[in-house]
Design brief:
- This protein is mainly α and 303 residues long.
- The protein folds into two domains: 111 residues, Up-down Bundle (Methane Monooxygenase Hydroxylase, Chain G, domain 1), CATH 1.20.58; 142 residues, no CATH class.
- The chain contains twelve helices and no strands.
Length: 303
């Protein structure tokens, strides 16, 4: 909303009755008496929003770190994945897929689509029923709450915000350097003093945020590779692992409610009574459950 150069000249050169100017023009004429008024306003606006933006970025990167830790450490989630793998092998018994040691996390989203011969019970219902004898799966959604929050984030947007903060801070630095050419240094002394102090702390904050972003991205890649093999090289969405798990958790909550209302005898079966259509068989190898007491060689081969 800053005036054009032509408008500036007209307002500065105006020598008529000030009362004849409309309020906006009167205000701008007074503002133009302040050296570098609009550049200073931009710098002050950046400073006013800086803490809020930095806090958001720090919390977002912290959420990604926490989501990675939760996925890797949740025994209940790993037990669920193991049950899915075993169920898939039982379904594919006698085929070349019947002895799979791993599967891709995307397979989780298909579990509710593969139905039994009754047309109602899905593979996920069967898996939940198998596990629910010794575990309470309904609590998994709360246990992985950071994963659900991480699924709402966009890594490109976060990195872009960091870059924008850094670029705009350079502009603020240029404004602070105008002090040497300021025609009214006495009245502007406080502004430049405040901005110099802000610049010193802001650079340090941005470096900390950049480091947090790099660390979070590194952890996300490691976690994705842990569950998804080398798919990060071909995955256009770096946070897809969280989106997949979050979508699966929503379905899992619904299935847990269904199982709770369904007599156990209806749910029991061998896993062979499910209709498996072309392209939906389980599991297309990737996730491999870690087992207690496994050797370091086995660990490295399954990540």
């Amino acid at each position: 909303m800053a005036p054009t150069k032509e408008e500036e000249f007209k307002l500065k050169d105006y020598s008529g009755d000030i009362s004849k100017l409309d309020p906006a023009e009167h205000f701008l004429k007074d503002v133009l008496d302040v050296p570098f008024a609009f550049k200073r306003a931009d710098a002050l606006l950046y400073r006013a929003n800086f803490d809020t933006e930095v806090d958001y970025l720090k919390k977002s990167f912290g959420t990604l770190e926490a989501a990675c830790a939760d996925l890797r450490s949740s025994k209940l989630f790993l037990k669920l994945l193991d049950a899915v793998l075993k169920t898939g092998n039982r379904m594919n018994d006698g085929t070349n897929r019947g002895e799979a040691r791993a599967f891709k996390p995307d397979t989780l989203l298909k579990l509710a689509d593969i139905k039994s011969t009754d047309g109602k019970t899905t593979v996920l219902h069967f898996v939940v029923q198998e596990i629910i004898r010794s575990e309470v799966l309904a609590g998994l959604s709360s246990e992985l709450s950071n994963v659900k929050r991480a699924a709402t984030l966009e890594m490109d947007t976060l990195i872009g915000n960091v870059s924008r903060l850094e670029t705009d801070l350079k502009k603020v630095k240029l404004v602070s350097q105008l002090e040497e050419t300021c025609p009214d240094q006495v009245s502007s002394e406080k502004f430049f003093e405040v901005m110099h102090t802000f610049l010193g702390s802001a650079w340090a904050e941005i470096e900390a945020v950049k480091a947090a972003g790099e660390s979070a991205l590194r952890r996300v890649k490691e976690t994705t590779e842990y569950f998804h093999g080398d798919a990060t090289k071909e995955e256009p969405h770096p946070l897809r692992i969280f989106m997949v798990v979050s979508g699966f958790l929503a379905t899992l909550d619904r299935v847990c409610r269904d199982v709770g209302r369904t007599p156990e005898r209806v749910m029991m079966g061998s896993g062979k009574s499910f209709r498996v259509s072309a392209g939906s068989s389980l599991p297309p190898r990737r996730y491999e459950p870690r087992r207690e007491g496994s050797s370091s060689d086995e660990d490295s081969s399954s990540s």
